[in-house]
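Recap for those who missed Tuesday's class. We walked through two folding examples back to back. For each one, the amino acid string is listed first and its predicted structure tokens come directly after. Nothing is annotated here on purpose, so try labeling regions yourself before you check the end of the notes.
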Amino acid sequence: MQTLFPEVDKQKQERLVACYSQKYFSKPLGRDDLFPGVYEMLVKLNEAGYLLAVATGKTRVGLQKALQATGTEELFRATRCADETASKPDPRMLREIIKHTNTKKERSLMVGDSVHDLQMAHNAIFLLLRCHVAHTQKNSYNNTIRYCACNSQLNY
């Protein structure tokens, strides 16, 4: 929250988090909330032997709710949440996932859709696949990070 609203005092940031959590947890989730084809893609990647992980700004409770509701929990080898480690754009989440999965950074790809994802990948010196979605913001990293932009359905 400090990254998103640095000018807002800590008390107001805590109220914003509480309000967001209330709204987030009041919405029923299901597999239909995933973008079309995402579940099938995750299954195929998993079956092909790719190690999948999640690095999120959500809390552990929020992520578990989303994974369970969408039936994707078993597809991910590792997950890291903002309430367990340094939040984005600090690269610690990615480093912890790499260590946990015993994977080389050079053999890893981060998929992200936000300015915080771009900054975290840049800070970790990671290859990034940037997916454009409606809420993606323009930022100064567009010219300094090598990334692939996917504006249409990926073939897998």
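Example two. Treat it independently of the first, because the proteins are unrelated.
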Amino acid sequence: MEPATTSVDEAKQFLVTCLTEQAHKDKVSLSEREKQLFLFSESNPLPSQNRDSFDDMDSDAFEQKTSKLLRRAYAVAKKSPVHSQQWRDALVALQDEDFYGLVAVDLAEIPRPTPRMPLLGAKVSVTGIATFAAPFLAQAVLLALGALVVLDP
């Protein structure tokens, strides 16, 4: 089964909907202004948004509040393959984005997809790089040792 393609806007809306629904379940107030801050992006702000429009908000309290809500929403969602896939699709769509909601995702310790290599479009991981590089590194060490033995007067 091939994963659904999710646009950046759909992914952001998915996360803010999860946030809003969890706030409702937990009986936690979440204002429209807080939702706007969650969706804020310096690279693509809404027409009514700029960095200064949120200066009076306590960012630490906001980040703690939203991360706790997202953590609980994700804990429930990951029990269902369908909901878990929706989260993955949204986070894949957002992996190259810069918006404030991802701060809460990271604080909630929700796993995000591994970034793609810019030129290859492939996923990068330390294990993958080590697996790929190990044979070449071993050959280089052997060649260096061989050169020392041969060139030793």
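Answers for example two:
Residues 130 and 137 are 10 Å apart (CA to CA).
The chain has two domains: 8-113, 116-153.
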